[in-house]
Amino acid sequence: MTLAQLPVGKTAIIKTVGGEGALRLRFLDMGLIPKTVVKVQKVAPMGDPIQLLIRGYELTVRKEDAEKIEIGEVN
Predict the structure, then answer these.
(1) Region for 14 from its dihedrals, namely left if φ exceeds 0, alpha if ψ lies in -120 to 50, beta otherwise
(2) What is the DSSP string of 11-75?
(3) Are strands 69-73 and 50-54 parallel, antiparallel or unpaired?
(4) Across residues 45-71, what is the average pLDDT?
(5) 25 DSSP assignment
(6) Tell me, what DSSP letter sits at residue 4?
């Protein structure tokens, strides 16, 4: 399952971060790193972008980018 598929209000743990080169580094710099808990707060009416709550701050990512981040269930 990817971050783009996570419903609003649900929480998950990041398993892997995809992308290549500068894109992957940008994800990691924003705090989207494996084993981090992330919650979807809002999704824009057309489905893009997606607002996340991660490490105590809000982050907005494009749906295209969220599809590159694999998630798992919170234990």
Answers:
(1) beta
(2) EEEEEEE---THHHHHHHHTT--TT-EEEEEEE-TTS-SEEEEETTEEEEE-HHHHTTEEEEE--
(3) unpaired
(4) 92
(5) H
(6) G
Residue 63 to residue 26: CA distance in whole angstroms: 15
Task: Judge whether residue 23 has pLDDT over 80.
Answer: yes
| φ/ψ (deg, to 5) at 40 | -85, 120
Res 75: pLDDT = 57
Please report the pLDDT score of residue 63 as a whole number. Answer: 93
Tokens, residue 15: 């398993």
Q: Give the bridge partners for 43, in sequence order.
A: 50
Q: Count CB-CB contacts under 10 A for residue 18.
A: 13
Q: How many residues does the chain have?
A: 75
Instruction: Check if the beta carbon of residue 48 is closer than 8 Å to that of residue 62.
Output: yes
The model carries a pTM of 0.84
